[in-house]
Amino acid sequence: MDLKEVMAVNLRRMRHDRDMTQEELADRAGLSTRYVGAIERADVSASVTILGKIAEALDVEPGALLKAVPASPR
Question: Is residue 13, in this structure, part of any structural domain at all?
């Protein structure tokens, strides 16, 4: 999994954990809802500036969005 996909998975999980919509996250981060959706689909790579804005909006450290979570055993 590349970093774009890692960030997409983490972003979606963290946003859902906070019962936040893409629109709410986009508003808090000063981004468009369309761009947040593209990041969550791993369609685009977010710059470090955008990573920082999203982390601040989610109240997490930026590195948390890039940390790969081991797959669960099946």
Answer: yes
| Residue 5 half-sphere exposure toward CB, CA atoms < 13 A | 3
DSSP state of 1: -
* Whether the Cβ atoms of residue 66 and residue 6 lie closer than 8 Å to each other: yes
State pLDDT tens for residues 14-36: 999 999 999 999 999 999 999 99
Q: Where are the alpha helices (DSSP H) in the chain?
A: 3-17, 22-29, 33-40, 48-58
- Return the CATH number at 47: 1.10.260.40
- Global pTM reads 0.88
Q: Which residues contact 42 (CB under 8 A, 6 or more apart)?
A: 2, 4, 5, 7, 8
DSSP assigned state of 67: P
